[in-house]
Description:
The protein is mainly beta. The protein is 15% helix and 40% strand. The longest helix has 39 residues. The protein is elongated, with a radius of gyration of 28 Å.
Amino acid sequence: xxxxxxxxxxxxxxxxxxxxxxxxxxxxxxxxxxxxxxxxxxxxxxxxxxxxxxxxxxxxxxxxxxxxxxxxxxxxxxxxxxxxxxxxxxxxxxxxxxxxxxxxxxxxxxxxxxxxxxxxxxxxxxxxxxxxxxxxxxxxxxxxxxxxxxxxxxxxxxxxxxxxxxxxxxxxxxxxxxxxxxxxxxxxxxxxxxxxxxxxxxxxxxxxxxxxxxxxxxxxxxxxxxxxxxxxxxxxxxxxxxxxxxxxxxxxxxxxxxxxxxxxxxxxxxxxxxxxxxxxxxxxxxxxxxxxxxxxxxxxxxxxxxxxxxxxxxxxxxxxxxxxxxxxxxxxxxxxxxxxxxxxxxxxxxxxxxxxxxxxxxxxxxxxxxxxxxxxxxxxxxxxxxxxxxxxxxxxxxxxxxxxxxxxxx
Length: 410
């Protein structure tokens, strides 16, 4: 799945097996890292015996699964389908620091605010810590869930690690002693797919889920402050079938000043904007809904608060939206946009070919079974059959009595 982000003034893009970066302000060489051509896993690595089902590294597809940028914008970490964890330093140029190996395929990763470690969550529900200071040291198991961890983030003071799993739970744990659980944020009806501690609001947490809602929490206490159903915010009228299909939140992004929150749902050609404010009863307020010509693949804010949207299109794969006079307007003539589009020009065709049209979360939805209705139907059938039997028995009894009377009278 394609993803975008910013590392300082570098615009970064991951697609298929490649990770690429283009500088938005200066004419510099495009950086490209191809996981398929990267170092292979040594046979002597300890995690060989602990990998998924004992499979070897050759079974991986080398596709980039996730990446994260450090708070300062100087470090980037990515993980791929072959279980690599690659650490980069970003400055005037790019430098690969290390390649390490995770135990299982990863779903999410995040740097600490101190940038001394990166936390990596995997499909088995475990969270590992990898040192940044010692880039060759193997990861250490820090905590685990009973189900797949889909998102991980950290508080802005590095005190808490916040994890979300497939079983609708958000857990807030102490980073240095993860067995010490501070709180649970409970209320989602489906898997939790996105987490964000917004800039400028260190005590709040935003979460998105497969139930189509975005919730605002005071995460230390586990108190839910607000909840919005994204489908109810749509201006267009939807059919009954569409209303039954819940939208899946795949990305929540915050502007650098924390004033604007953008929410992206999978296979929905729109971005929902919210505003965050400390005062008033409603902290999270719907602002506007930006309709797009195509379903976006991903989005990210730059340092100037502009929203960059990656589209599944070879004609206009990137669009920039700027907040002006209370609305979000397209900035098609931006020099940064032209520079980035030109830098990625050789990659758009490959990106479009690798862009997945299938849902990344479809298999995570829990199927509901209405056993009560089936039970009541079978019960009604049994009652009707019993009534028929009683009626038949009574008719036979009455017929026998009538026959006896006729015999006795003759």
